[in-house]
Structures are given as structure tokens and as C-alpha cells.
Amino acid sequence: MTLAPGVDARLGSCVEATRALFGAAACSIALVDDDGANLRFVASDGAGADEIVGVTIPVSRGIAGWAAMSGQPIAVRDVQTDPRFARDVAESTNYVPTAIYAAPMLDAEGEVLGVASVLDPVVDETSDWTLHVLGTIAGLIAMVTTVTAGETSQDSPPLARLGDDVLRLVEAWRTAEPGGSA
Amino acid sequence: MSLTPAWSGAFDRSALEEVVGLPLEDVREWAFGGSTGAGVDVAVVDSGVDADHPRVGGLSGGVAFELDPLAELGYVEREGPHEDLVGHGTACAAIIRSIAPDAVLYSVRVLGANLKGRGALLHAGVEWAVEHGMHVANLSLSSKSDAMFGPLHEVADQAYFSGTVLVCAANNLPGPTYPSQYASVVSVAARPGDEELALAYNAHPPVEFGARGIDVDVAWADGGSITATGNSFAAPHVSGMVALMRSKHPWLTPFQVKAVLQAASVNSLAR
Question: pLDDT-based confidence at A174, cuts 50/70/90?
Fold first, then answer.
């Protein structure tokens, strides 16, 4: 799909906020192309971010493709045991993660728009809870992504502020933690 | 502020409510004891299954549905062997094989190298399972497409009345997903633990059952294995259990299967 002007910046805020929320090494967003055959990384924050943006992978490969195909949020604790992953994605970014969480992004009609991925998150434990959080965030990011061409931040202020709001919440949460970075 | 998990929260040990089940004595032994799943046909509706993976132990057949814009329905049906492009279907099949080693496994590939037409292919795969008399169909995938609500509901009802038990992974996304949302299917969310036959019933559906699905060692593409988490891996555990009970008691209907699963759950007072 083609992004409307200004959406790139909003997606940048989304991946930054999501990476902070999960305490992750990186977070990225990949969108399904018009043919439905490939995922194109359009936004990323963290390790390998500069390299991954613009990379295209077939939807049938990698953990992100897995989430897109099944329509299910999925977590893999050690992707390095998957030789296909290393070949398709990690080598192109110069960052090889251990764990990946991925959730499908769906449009209002329920069609798969893309995938939100989190690399090496710092969470207490792998659980359904974390997949629920990522699945919910992926749905919100899908809303940001589908802002139509010509729509401005004045037309949809909640969407425009979404990333910044999440960032502020994460920062507030971190500073409230014992040993927080405040 | 506290965050509540989507579905698995219902299966936390501290939150698990006791439920009244049918007064069946030794129901787990009655349902599962000594069974290998022999004679039970199980369809894995997914991305294909690697029949040569050592943890799958072979397939008895398969069919792949592929998009074809020139075809009347927009897709074609290809009988015969096919590969698993991703590893998702292989992971599910291996879990079922581990629980029900003599079950008769079929791969129904509805996920391919393209996301277009995903809902229509999913429908076609479920329809194939019903028309071919599968006793169990594992669906570790879902659709949120509004356009597919009606067609998937209809074929899920056909499955229910013709004796094909549809075991569907719940989804941790906001809003309903299909077919896991339907009352005619057995819906499953992930639950911690190492026991393959562990089962819990949710007193507050629509998602009714919790099974092993957190940090599961699963088969993967290219003959490998990985450790993965998701409702996708909980569903095949229940599919395996259904295969066990239908092997011992072939007369069980889908609604009886669900009642037995509930009675066999760890929080059932009948157990």
C-alpha cells in the first residue's frame, strides 16, 4: 500500500514508543505490498533500523510472514535456530536477534495490512499477556497506517498524537520504577 | 492500572473458576487412557505440512488451495504432496502426532505465498475437511474479515452437524475473529505448563479451553525445531486430545466432545 504524506513520521513515533514499551532492541513495521506477496519494512527503531527500512521479504518467510499468514500474534524465543530467518532478514540488517514477537496489523475490514515486530524484548516472561499487548498495539498502528491521503493531523488528532502519548506513558512508567532512569 | 490478558488470563491458576461438569467418573481415563488416536482422520488446515519432518511422521494425504484469478471461485484445488512454506503447519501437525501417534494426518494448505484471498482459501479448506469426513480439523489461524463471517459460520455449522470437530486457535487481537468466535467450534487459548494433556475450561466464554501454548518446543521448517508461544500451538494440543477420545469412542458427536473436554478440565468438579 502507499502511505499518505505524514504517515511515515507517525509510524516512526509508533515504533519508537513500542520499542520503549517492551524495552526491546528494535521494533519495526512491515506492510504488505499491493500484490499481497511481499512485506516491505517501512519504519523501524533501534538496532539495525537504518538497514531494515526498505527491505522486502516474501510473506511466506520469517516470523513476520508467519504472523501475517496465520493472522495470529506469535512469539519465538530463539529465532537463530531457524536457518531461513538468518538468511532472509538478519544478514541484511547486521543485527541477529534471539527473540522475536510479531503481530498482524489488520484494517477495518479485517484484511492483513502488515506486521509489527519486536526484537529481543525485555519482559518478565513469555506469555499470552505480552502477545495481547503487542496485538492491541498492532491494531492501533494499523489505524495510523490507514489514514487516507489528504487527511491531516487536524483531521485525526487522536491518531496523530498516539505515538507521542504512548511514549509519554512509557517514560512516566519508567521513572516511577525503582531504579528508573529519571 | 492493571492490564488483563486477552484470553489466557481466564486460565491463570489464581483466576481459574471451578465449573460443574457432567457426572462422569474417571473421565480423563475414559477419554484418553490407552488411546493412540488410531483410525481418526485429522486435517491440519494451515500453511502445509512437511511430511518428512521426523516429528510429523508422515502424512496420509493432502490438498493445497491456491489462488487462480482465472478459476470460477478464484482458486484451484491441487491434490497431493506439497511443502510447508513457513513451518506453521508442520509445528501443529507434530504436536498432534506427539499426542495421538497413530492418528491419520492430512495437510490442507490454505496459506501460501500470497495474502490475497486468504479468507476464501480458509473457507475452502474447512469445506474440504467437512466433505472428506475428517473427524477433527485443526485451525491455528483465523480471519477478522467481516466478509467471511457468514460463509465461515455456515461451513462451521456444517462441520458441527456432520461430525467434524473444528478446533480453533483464539486470537489476541481486539474484536472477534473467525471461526474461533463461533459456538459450533472448540476454541483454545494458550496456557502455561509442560503437560501435553493439560486442559482448563473458561467459565466465561467465548474462548472455552486453555491448553499448553507458552514456550513450546515445536517442529519447524527444514527439519528443525524452535521454542514458540501462541494460541496457534495450544489448539493442536486439544486436536490431539479430541483424536484420542474419538479413537476410543467413535460415536462421540462434536457437542459430546466438548462436554467431555469440559469434564476433563483441571477446574471441572466432575473430574
Answer: low
Chain B closest CA to A109's CA: distance in Å? Answer: 5
Residue A177 contacts B, CB cutoff 8 Å: no
DSSP labels for B130-151?
A: HHTT-SEEEE---B--GGGHHH
Phi/psi-derived region of residue A39, left when phi > 0, alpha when psi is between -120 and 50, beta in every other case? beta
Res. B54: pLDDT tops 80: yes
pTM (2 decimals)? 0.86
- Looking at residue B60, its amino acid is S
Element (H, E) at A167: helix A157-176
B268 within domain boundaries: no
Query: How many independent structural domains does chain B possess?
Result: 1
**Could you tell me if residue B62 is inside a domain?**
yes
User: What ranges make up the beta strands (E) of chain A?
Assistant: 26-32, 38-46, 56-58, 74-76, 100-106, 112-119
B62-117 pLDDT tens trace? 999 998 889 998 899 999 988 887 888 999 999 999 999 999 999 999 988 777 77
- Is residue B270 domain-resident? no
- Locate B131 and state its grid cell: 466433505
Q: What is the ipTM score, two decimals?
A: 0.79
Please give the single-letter amino acid code of residue B155. V
What's B245's domain CATH number?
3.40.50.200
Determine how many CB atoms are found less than 10 A away from the CB of residue B153.
16
Residue in A68, A72, A129 closest to B142 by CB: A72
Q: Give the Cα separation of B229 and B226 in Å (integer).
A: 10
Which burial class, exposed, middle or buried, applies to B183 when counting CB atoms under 10 A from its CB (0-12, 13-18, 19+)?
A: middle
Could you tell me the sign of the dihedral formed by the alpha carbons of B58, B179, B215, B16, in that order? negative
> What is the span of the domain harbouring residue B141?
8-13+27-263
**Under an 8 A CB cutoff, do B213 and A128 touch?**
yes
- Confirm if B83 and B77 have CB atoms less than 8 A apart: no
Is position B3 within any domain? no
Res. B173: pLDDT tops 50: yes
What's the rounded Cα separation, in Å, for the pair A48 and A31? Answer: 18
Q: What pLDDT does residue A86 have? A: 56
Flag if B47 and A81 touch (Cβ within 8 Å): no
C-alpha–C-alpha distance, residues A120 and A131, integer Å: 14
